[in-house]
Design goal:
Oligomer: single chain
Radius of gyration: 19 Å
Strand content: 15-25%
Helix content: 40-55%
């Protein structure tokens, strides 16, 4: 990997309000912008262009670090009008990417959330999350926390190409088992589903089966979408690594999204697998946790 540049900045607020309908949260928090995981398909690539950087190598090697994010979060949560809503951490860039080993921002953010007994969710591809197992367990006891492990495939040949700087999927599953055994609610985001690469029904079943075996209580899926910034990076990769799929992707992705009929087919396949392995939807699992906390308080 090329050398990484860390650009340290101060933020006025740690929380970002989400106005998109249909999401199970209204507030997000991303301590880092850009991501060293270098996933070819990352939907957040285009956002790097707002900073004056490109969505390709700059996204992977110019990491913006919000060095005061924990302190800014403390101010946000202390405001009189704050209603202890769930905070979704890592919705754009992984909060446990390699930069976390240097800065520890996510760790400090969790400490603030525990201090204010504020519920949260985390999305990650990194087994480094287990370093915060004690803190996650403490937060889970007072406010509720869910950890979403993003796993697109268990096929190591495909994984190495589409997620070149991430931990092996099996390592993520092992981390999920450890957290689950500590009483921390975990699930798998089977995402993105890539047409012709990770959408074989047997491959999807293997991910769902492994998720259930490693302590997942829910599973969710999402089909690849290619918005500006991501598209310009992913399509050349596809033509080089999987040229036999180029024509199919050109037909599927005239716009950002795959055909609705294809997406519906994937959702139906995952829904059947979810029921077969006794897993819930993320919202159902989070609602159950919230109810348990209310009964305990």
């Amino acid at each position: 990997m090329p050398d990484v540049i860390f650009e340290e900045i101060a933020c006025k607020s740690a929380l970002n309000r989400v106005h998109a309908p249909g999401l199970p949260f209204r507030w997000t928090l991303n301590p880092y912008r850009g991501c060293q995981h270098a996933c070819t398909y990352c939907f957040a690539r285009g956002a790097h262009e707002f900073l004056g950087y490109d969505a390709g190598r700059d996204f992977e090697t110019r990491i913006v670090v919000k060095v005061n994010a924990p302190e800014a979060l403390r101010r946000d949560l202390a405001r009189p009008g704050w209603r202890r809503e769930r905070v979704a951490i890592g919705t754009a860039c992984d909060p446990y990417q390699q930069a976390e080993l240097k800065y520890g921002l996510t760790h400090r953010i969790l400490r603030v959330l525990r201090e204010f007994a504020n519920p949260a969710s985390i999305t990650t591809k990194s087994p480094h999350v287990v370093r915060d197992a004690d803190l996650l367990q403490a937060l889970s006891a007072v406010a509720g926390v869910t950890v979403n492990f993003s796993i697109a495939t268990l096929d190591e040949e495909v994984w190495k190409r589409i997620e070149p700087a991430t931990a092996r999927p099996r390592k993520r599953l092992e981390a999920m088992r450890l957290l689950s055994e500590r009483g921390i609610q975990c699930g798998v985001l089977l995402a993105p589903v890539l047409p012709g690469l990770t959408d074989d029904p047997d491959d999807l079943r293997r991910v769902v089966e492994a998720a259930q075996e490693h302590g997942a209580s829910y599973i969710h899926d999402n089909v690849l979408h290619l918005k500006p910034g991501t598209r310009e990076w992913f399509m050349p990769f596809l033509r080089e690594a999987y040229p036999h799929l180029s024509e199919r992707y050109a037909a599927y992705y005239r716009g950002p999204y795959a055909p609705a009929s294809y997406t519906l087919e994937v959702h139906r396949t995952i829904e059947a697998l979810r029921h077969a392995y006794g897993l819930a939807l993320p919202s159902e699992a989070q609602d159950a946790t919230a109810g348990q906390l209310q009964l305990a308080m």
